[in-house]
Structures are given as structure tokens and as C-alpha cells.
UniProtKB/TrEMBL annotation:
Keywords associated with the record: Cytoplasm
Alphabetical list of InterPro entries matching this protein: UspA (IPR006016)
Pfam families for this protein: Usp
Domain UspA: 153-272
Domain of life the protein comes from: Bacteria
Family recorded in the similarity comment: Belongs to the universal stress protein A family.
Organism whose genome encodes this protein: Thiopseudomonas alkaliphila
Record's protein name: Universal stress protein
């Protein structure tokens, strides 16, 4: 996170100082990042308010630029600005979609998480981050190199963000229930599953010098367990990864990071594997 030099803040015109901007200011004060304000302005009515906000922030000592623009859709407008100004982090607020609408249309937040190459911080609350804990939610069931790299990135980013919140890092992973029909005997018995996942957790604890007492290993679906665990550990921020699933599977079930957005009561930072980031950037270049 300290390597982020520019933060894209997606403004909500309903607020004089949007929650996404409050988070961005907090992070920028620690990382010395520049701020870039974006109003997704389909009606062309927000230019003046963006300029007024820029002036206010400059008077507060922030390095800030911004614009009001629109390009085809909400998520495309955000991604175009992120690419144009080389922003290393995107921050926006989340608002729950109507369940029926979700069935018919992919929510804009989901599209942003899937197609934006940069990490995306979804702001869910206005709670003060000060002295709040950070939950790093990792999927240890996938041991492919790119997924291990993503797991390490989630933990290292979580540790960096405790420098912002002044809280502690908690590590969480979920493991599946035993299935007698599983081809791998490891997944036929609860004890062998737990031992396997505990060994993987222990490796991360050793690699990042984490406190073993702050590790949660639970059985069940991650999309249900992550919000509960975040509440239990007093997290103000949850760091997760996504493989940015698209196509039919994405339309029907979404990704874990997308599914938890409505139910979790913390802000959520979503990271992607490096190979997915590179593919998204190639796709964007091919469109231009």
C-alpha cells in the first residue's frame, strides 16, 4: 500500500464529503499519495462541485486533481480514469442492490471488481478506522503459484494497512466439510482437512511473523464465515482476493468478494492475482 502514489476517489454527489473521500484522505496522510477525484457525471452537472472540492482539499494541504466525466457506463468511466492517471488504488462507496435486480443485471460494483486492474477499496461504513483491526481473508485451498502469490499479497497488504488503522492483523481461512466421495482421501475426514489447512496457516504465520492467537480456521462456506469473523475480531477493514470470474458462472454465483459485499459490516479491499491484472490491462489496450 505504501507503493501507491495516486488514489482515485469515486465521488458520491449526495455527500458534501463522501465516505470514500474520508477514507482516501486517511490513507493519503500515511502514504503521501496524490488524490484524483472522479464524478461519474452522466448528466454533465457536477463539474463545478468537483472543482470546489478540489479547492477545499488543496487548502487542507492535499495534492489533488479531478474531473467530472462519463464514458458508456459507471464502471467503464472509473476504469478509464484509473488507467489515464495511473492510480494504484480505487476507492468508492458500496450500496446494496435490489436482489431481483442482481439476478437480471450484474451490479456495477461487481463489474468494477472484475474489470479494474487496480485494487478496489469498497467503503461500507463511516466508522472511524482508528485502532480498528484488519482481517486478511485468504483461500488456502488453491495452491497454484499465482494463488499463493495472491494469498501473500493479501497478508502483506493487510499488515501495511494496520499502519493506517493502528490495529492488529487477524488471519482467516475457511476449509470445506468432509466428503466421503472425495477423490483425495485428505478431504474425506474432518481431522485430515483441518490438519492440512492448519499447516498452510502455520506457513503464513511463519512467513509474515504473525501472532498465532489471531488466526481463525473455520469449516464452512467462506462467503458466510467472513462477515461473521470480521464482526468477531472487531475488524474495520477486510482484505480479500478475487479471481474476477466472468461468464455464466460469474453471472450466477459471483465471486466470494462480490457476494459478501452486502452482508459484511466492514470496508473491503479487493486484490487480484498478477496474471489477471496483466490480462485486464492487455484487454483494455486492445479496446483503444
Amino acid at each position: 500500500m505504501r507503493s501507491v502514489r495516486s488514489i482515485l476517489v469515486v465521488l458520491n454527489p449526495a455527500y458534501e464529503e463522501p465516505p470514500a473521500l474520508i477514507r482516501a484522505k486517511h490513507i493519503a496522510q500515511v502514504t503521501q499519495s496524490d488524490l484524483y477525484l472522479l464524478a461519474c457525471d452522466k448528466d454533465g452537472t457536477q463539474h463545478q462541485s468537483v472543482q470546489q472540492l478540489i479547492t477545499k482539499l488543496r487548502n487542507e494541504g492535499f495534492s489533488v486533481k479531478g474531473e467530472a466525466s462519463w464514458h458508456n457506463s459507471f464502471h467503464e468511466t472509473v476504469i478509464q480514469a484509473q488507467q489515464a492517471f495511473n492510480c494504484g488504488l480505487v476507492i468508492k462507496e458500496h450500496h446494496a442492490e435490489n436482489p431481483l435486480k442482481k439476478v437480471l443485471l450484474t451490479p456495477e460494483d461487481w463489474k468494477l471488481l472484475r474489470f479494474c486492474p487496480a485494487p478496489v477499496l469498497i467503503v461500507k461504513t463511516t466508522h472511524d478506522w482508528s485502532n480498528g483491526n484488519v482481517l486478511a481473508a485468504v483461500d488456502l485451498g488453491n495452491t497454484e503459484p499465482e494463488h499463493r502469490e495472491l494469498q501473500n499479497s493479501i497478508v502483506s497488504t493487510g499488515l501495511e494497512l494496520t499502519q493506517v488503522t493502528k490495529g492488529k492483523l487477524h488471519l482467516f481461512t475457511a476449509h470445506p466439510s468432509p466428503m466421503l466421495s472425495a477423490a483425495d482421501p485428505t478431504f474425506q475426514l474432518r481431522d485430515t482437512i483441518e490438519n492440512r489447512y492448519k499447516g498452510l496457516c502455520d506457513s503464513l504465520v511463519s512467513l509474515f511473523d504473525l501472532d498465532p492467537a489471531l488466526v481463525s480456521l473455520k469449516e464452512g462456506p467462506a462467503d458466510l464465515l467472513i462477515p461473521r469473523t470480521a464482526d468477531e475480531v472487531g475488524a474495520v477493514l477486510t482484505v480479500m482476493g478475487t479471481v474476477a470470474r466472468t461468464g455464466l458462472s460469474g453471472a450466477l454465483i459471483g465471486n466470494t468478494a462480490e457476494v459478501v459485499l452486502d452482508s459484511i459490516q466492514t470496508d473491503v479491499l479487493v486484490l487480484k492475482p498478477q496474471d489477471r491484472i496483466e490480462q485486464l490491462e492487455r484487454d483494455l489496450k486492445n479496446k483503444t
